[in-house]
Amino acid sequence: MKFAAIFVLFANAFSAGMMFLISLLISRYGGKEIFGFFSVILGLIVAATPVATFGMDAAIVRFLPVYRSEGRGSLVSRIQRFVLFFSGSISLLGGLGLAVLLVNFRGYDWGIGISTGVCLPLSVVLVVSQGIIRANENVSIAVMPEAIVRPLIFSICISVFLFARMETLSLISIVFSYAIALIFSNFFAFIVIIKKRYVDWNFESRIGFKDIRLWLNVGASVVFSNISISLINQSPVIVAGIILSAFDAGEIGAVSRLAMLVSFALTAVNSIITPFLSRAIIVGDKMEVQSIVTRAMAFSIFIAVPVCIVFYLFSPFLLSAFGADYLKAVPFLRIMLCAYVVHVAAGPSISLLNISGLHKVTSRIMMLWTCLVLCGLLISMTVYGISGGVLVAAISTAGYPLLLAVICYKALGIDTTIFSLRFLLQR
C-alpha cells in the first residue's frame, strides 16, 4: 500500500504539473478569452461525466470485493462488461446532447460541438475502465491512463498545434487535442483490462437481472453525490462563463486550477484506500477502518500544508505566469488556497460514507448543498461579480467535507478529520 500511495502521489503530481503547464500555454498563446472558453468546456465535460457513468465506477469498487469473498468470481467479470457497455451507451447520448447544447445555445461551431461531444463518452469509458482496474486492487496502474497518459499526450498535441500554427492556439485545436489524449488514455486502459482478463467478453454468459438492479440502485444513489461534487468544483467557472464573460471564466479557471493542487494528495489517497476500506468494512474491522483513514489523513495533510504555504507566498508569481491580467486575482487565489486546506483537513469522508452503505444520505446532503451553492453563485456573481463568486466557491469547498466528516463520526464512529492524527500518537 505504501508503494502504491507514493506512486499515485507522484502520478497525480505529474498530472497536476502537466495540466498547469498546458493551462499556461493556452493562456499565453490562445489568450485569456480562449482559455476561459476552454475552462468552461472542460468544466462541462467534467460535470457531465458522473451523470453518464451513473455511479457504476463506484459500484464496481464497492461490490467486487464482496463477490470475491462470496466466491462469485465469474459474476465479477460479467458485471464489469455490463458496466462498460451501459455507461458507454449513456455517454454517447450525453455527448450528442452536449454537442447540440454548445452549438444551439452557446453559439459554438459544429467542429467544437462535435469534438466536445466525443470527449464525454471517452471520459466516461476512461473513468469506468479505471474503476475496473482499481477494484481489482491494481491502484498503481489504474491511475496511469488519466494521470500520466492523458496529460502527456495532451501536452504533445498542444505543442504540435502550437508549432504548426506559428505560436497561436485556437479553441478547436485545444478541444481536438484533448479528445486525442482521451483516445490514447482509453487505449492504454483497455490494453490492461484485456491483458489481465478483468472482463468476460463472452456475450453468451448472462448476468442476472437481480444483480443488475442492485448495481443500478446503488449507482443511482452514488451518481447524485458525484454530480454534486463535480458541480461544486466546476460551477464557478461555468456560471462565470454564463453570467459574466469568458475573461472572468478564465480568471476563475486559473485560480481554481492552482488552488486544487493543494488537494491532489487527498485525491490520490482516495483512489488508493477505497478497495482496502471496502474489504475492512466487509469483515467488520472498525479499528482497521480508522487506521486506514488516519494514515490517509496524515499523508494528505502533510503534503497539502507545505503546498498551500508555498502557493500563498508566491501567488503573484504563479498567476503572472498566465499573463499580467491575472495579477488582480491574487486575493482570490489565497482565499481558495485556505478553503482547500480545510477541505483536505476534513479527510476522505465521502469515500467512507459511500463504501459504508450510507450513499443515500451522502447523496441527499450533497444535492441540497449543490443547490445552495448554485443559488449562491448566481446571486453573488450577479450582484458582486467575480469576487462574490470566489467567496461562495471558497465556502462551498470548505463546507461540505466538514459536514460529511461530522456525519461519519456520528453514524460510523470514525474520525476522518485532522484530529484523527491523535491515533498515530497513541500507537
From TrEMBL:
Topology in the lipid bilayer: Multi-pass membrane protein
Keyword Cell membrane: yes
Transmembrane segments: 34-61, 82-104, 110-135, 147-164, 170-194, 259-277, 298-319, 331-355, 367-396, 402-425
Subcellular location: Cell membrane
Matching Pfam families: Polysacc_synt (PF01943)
Top-rank lineage group of the source organism: Bacteria
Record-linked InterPro entries: Poly_Biosynth_Transport (IPR050833), Polysacc_synth (IPR002797)
Keywords: Cell membrane, Membrane, Transmembrane, Transmembrane helix
Protein's recorded name: Membrane protein involved in the export of O-antigen and teichoic acid
Provenance organism: Thalassospira xiamenensis
